[in-house]
Amino acid sequence: MFVKSAAFYNAIYGFKDYEGASARLHTLIQENKPGAGTLLDVGCGTGLHLKYLRKQYEVAGLDISPELLAVARESCPDIPFHEADMTDFELNRTFDVVICLFSAIAYVKTLANLERAMTQMARHLQPGGLLIVEPWVSPEKYWRNHIVANFVDQPDLKISWMYNHDIEDSVSVFNINYLVGTPQGVEYFTERHEMGLFTHEQYLAAFGQAGLHVEYDEKGLFGRGMYLGVKEEIIS
What we know:
Blueprint: H1 9-12, H2 18-32, E1 38-42, H3 48-53, E2 58-63, H4 66-75, E3 81-83, E4 95-100, H5 111-123, E5 125-133, E6 147-154, E7 157-164, E8 166-168, E9 171-182, E10 185-196, H6 200-209, E11 212-217, E12 226-231
Parallel strand pairs: 1-2, 1-4, 2-3, 4-5
Antiparallel strand pairs: 5-12, 6-7, 7-9, 8-9, 9-10, 11-12
């Protein structure tokens, strides 16, 4: 995944309004879990959402990539970050809110892993806690053989990155070609990304299997939709 590109991740996705998205997320959280105070970001990447959400919550991040976490720890040294697989992790604590954004959930690739990830995230919720998941596109909406090109233009950093969308079985595949220019020179490298293509019904079933009551927002933060699952309260 993000091995060679991790150092450039924040520049590559600089077009995303993380501050605005985090503000909308905060509003959504308070509407669905008023008074929430603790939050775990699963698949947190370089911690760009947590950079803003830490203003309202006691936050923590989790990601499988040591390269992305190195960037996150450098920019947000006050936030605890955990290196772990979202399908199998144990932090020995629970949170009011768990989030999994920017389609990070799809990197689990298989339906069995999707169900495991949902179960693990639900286990880390307080009773009545909120799980928010931003999915990847569904199989029927996937753009096969679609060419994508982006460009970063900063004074001392130029990046061209290009790839085709392809599909193998039920997994979307894109081999990203990067051309990175700095005052020190120009570097070329590639990365292969594989993301599972899950249907709306499969997401709903995974939430239900994890013991969560789920609602769906078709738009979400960036047009990819959003699932909101609530863990049942314990009644004594």
